[in-house]
Specification:
Layout (H helix, E strand, L loop, with lengths): L1 H10 L20 H7 L3 E2 L3 E7 L5 E3 L2 E3 L3 H12 L1 E2 L4 E11 L4 E12 L2 E16 L2 H7 L5 E8 L5 H17 L8 E7 L2 E6 L2 H15 L2 E12 L2 E13 L6 E4 L2 E8 L3 E6 L5 E5 L7 E4 L5 E4 L2 E2 L3 E5 L6 E5 L9 E7 L2 E5 L12
Parallel strand pairs: 2-8, 9-13
Antiparallel strand pairs: 1-5, 2-3, 3-4, 6-7, 7-8, 9-11, 10-11, 12-13, 14-15, 14-18, 15-16, 16-17, 19-23, 20-21, 21-22, 23-24
Helix pairs in contact: 5-6
Length: 363
């Protein structure tokens, strides 16, 4: 009876289901050797395709076109195509690439991970195959697609080419500040009678630019939407946005209500203006300021050193004639040795100090 019991005990002991080896066993009751033969740390495809726009170079990732560097492309391909064992832990990846041709790149992988407390280390090779495509943006550009037209105009006076160029340059700044949307492209642009037009591929970009223009340069924006068709049961519309810049800028001297004023800041409905000859500050709407006339632009102002001064008048050398001239001191004068002056109607007037003057370099 004793021999039979010992025999039954041995028959009940654990063993590897594949080769019969004794413990330790792992996973589905396999020894380490059999487990390593049947379990892989990761499945890696030999070839993986990816698409790049032949026109602009952006990359298609899961149906979306995005800007990626070459290294980011390899990282994306590895992340999308490597399938690790469901129980793998503490995974580490080392990557090295080698360019085979313009379209083919070899990606060498060293993988490490833990399964069933056993360390697995594997090496794999994956070939990245690039195919040329054309992104939606380039397709629409080639077809002169557009969603919005921004019309830059002025009120009060005709803007110079330089001023229009400065306004146009702000669009590049807006695009840089916004998210990297491939629809933020310019279809066409150029001067037209009475202003400058920019045709673009995004209504959102047009509205963002309009907000920036009114905040930084004042003025008003008027939007008009027109229906050009229907798609999937929805009206397809195009936006025309008219931006009118006032004929004056912050810091200019304007004649308004028979006095001289300087615009100090923009508001949603107009501007805050400060009177030149005395301490007075008021708000004015765009309609109120329609009659305002620019008598001296900020770029025309001069800074002069006072040679003599008393409580109300200062003397300086006229930079045009180099003859001693006098001017009434600004109302906020505190005895400083230099002042800002402007030539208005053939006479010099002094200007009070404003916050915008601190950022303006004049001679």
């Amino acid at each position: 009876m004793r021999e039979i019991g010992e025999e039954m005990s041995e028959l009940g002991a654990e063993f590897c289901l594949v080769c019969g080896s004794p413990p330790p066993l792992f996973g589905e009751r396999m020894c380490e050797s059999c487990l390593r033969k049947r379990v892989k740390l990761a499945d890696v495809p030999q070839n993986v395709p990816w698409v790049r726009c032949a026109r602009c170079g952006i990359v298609e990732i899961q149906g979306k076109w995005v800007h990626l560097s070459e290294q980011e492309v390899w990282d994306e391909l590895i992340q999308r195509n490597l399938k690790f064992h469901a129980e793998a832990e503490d995974i580490a990846i080392a990557v090295e690439t080698r360019t085979i041709s313009d379209r083919h790149t070899m990606i060498y992988l060293q993988l490490e991970g833990v399964i069933e407390s056993l360390l697995f280390q594997e090496e794999h090779t994956m070939r990245a195959r690039m195919a040329n495509g054309v992104c939606l943006t380039c397709t629409r550009r080639a077809g002169n697609y557009y969603e919005a037209t921004v019309q830059l105009r002025s009120s009060g006076r005709k803007l110079s080419e330089t001023e229009y160029n400065n306004l146009r340059a702000t669009l590049d700044n807006v695009i840089e500040m916004l998210s990297n949307d491939p629809m933020f492209f310019i279809t066409s642009e150029g001067p037209v009678t009475g202003g400058y037009d920019v045709v673009m591929g995004s209504k959102g970009l047009a509205r963002a630019w309009g907000r920036h223009l009114t905040k930084e340069h004042g003025g008003q924006v008027v939007e008009t939407n027109s229906t050009v068709g229907r798609k999937d049961g929805v009206d397809v519309t195009r936006l025309t946005m008219l931006y009118r810049k006032p004929g004056y800028d912050l810091g200019d001297v304007i004649r308004w209500r028979e006095n001289f004023w300087r615009p100090a800041s923009w508001t949603k409905d107009g501007a805050i203006v400060e009177r030149v000859d005395r301490q007075e500050r008021t708000g004015a709407s765009w309609r109120d300021l329609e009659s305002a006339q620019v008598v001296s632009q900020m770029s025309e102002h001069l800074a002069v050193d006072l040679i003599n001064q008393d409580s109300s008048v200062g003397e300086f050398l006229d930079p045009n004639t180099w003859v001693m001239a006098s001017v009434r001191l600004p109302w906020d004068h505190n005895g400083r040795e230099s002042i800002r002056i402007a030539r208005v109607d053939g006479e010099w007037i002094s200007l009070h100090n404003m916050a915008i003057d601190e950022n303006d370099s004049i001679e």
